[in-house]
């Protein structure tokens, strides 16, 4: 929802704090999740993730979430799906070139990033989207990656 | 070094002898690295299948330009493709900057085009995200945007410097191109624009062309930040300029062309000139002044002249601005035989 999305960016610092703890929690739950089986969990977790993040951030389920690098403004809401910053067409009022009624997601991202402690992650170069991951859970992917790199409990 | 080259440089399209530290064998990179003030311009792409339409437009630009941009369906309007224009231009001995927009092609098509372009003799590639399809005359088209300008820069740099496709698969002969991007200091979020520029440099941009500049104080603020970050030492900056044909055109551009910022004072100045002919002359005068003003800004390495449907004035404007400092035009003598033979 557009209004909630704007609210979430205004509270980017809170969401950053929340995510840090939330991430810690589900990474810690890694061994249990593995026992249940990631494949079995994929569908239900993805449904929860789609609904929660869909409500808060208008998440498009790209499956490779970078909200913490984009000021809690989901870049997949950009009509050009730009993951590395705004295009040159941003209107003088900060609205989108393609959808004039919408604030540019990158104007939002920049504002959100200034509220966050790790806001400078906005300078990280993002690789192109892996289209195979669309629709899958980014949360579970993080847990799996933590396990692989041996950082998990 | 450049003076010696100059004598041999009758043909801006021919690959020059390789130089250490240069990515390409093109004229644009050489002029910039030699510390000269570079001039590029844009070829208005024809809605035609006749090569003469390309050559007629190129001949008037090449007189004063170090490279000519071949645009890729700008404004999301179909025209002759940038690949097609580059094929013609390189064949006739011109030095194009091939623009690639991410709107119409996915990563597979783009990487193939890069190889094809380099094989044809394209020395410069400009990476763009591209205007949205809604700007064009076919807004019902499917927008691709598989890459964005920054991931495109990085992709081509990987191809050139590591000799690999995005997948990691090896190339037998990498494309030796000078890589460019666009920056727009005149659109929000203004504080972020220099950081965005830094990101493009980190992704591989060696030169940038800016959106139309009609607001010099805003450019100066941007450039001050760019200098603080040392970006002007890592990347060549060509400021976009162009003559406004009339106050009416200026108003239309401001409202219809994405990312163009024209202050009211500028439009008033053109309007005050009066009759259409006088407004046009005032537009040209303003463009010459802008070139002279931006040239004085530290860190500006050249201008990119965009004269939509006014290509015939580019040469006049550049010559009047004095930026060439006696550098001569480089029209290829055998151009017309060349185009007739093909």
UniProtKB/TrEMBL annotation, chain A:
Domain Methylene-tetrahydrofolate reductase C-terminal-like residues, every copy: 40-130
A Pfam family hit: DUF5981
Name this polypeptide is given: Methylenetetrahydrofolate reductase C-terminal domain-containing protein
Native source species: Benzoatithermus flavus
UniProtKB/TrEMBL annotation, chain B:
Pfam families the record matches: MTHFR
Cofactor: FAD
GO molecular function terms listed in the Swiss-Prot or TrEMBL record: methylenetetrahydrofolate reductase [NAD(P)H] activity
Source organism superkingdom: Bacteria
InterPro entries: FAD-linked_oxidoreductase-like, Mehydrof_redctse-like
CDD domains, A to Z: MTHFR
Chain spans, region Disordered: 1-25
Membership in a protein family: Belongs to the methylenetetrahydrofolate reductase family.
Protein name as catalogued: Methylenetetrahydrofolate reductase
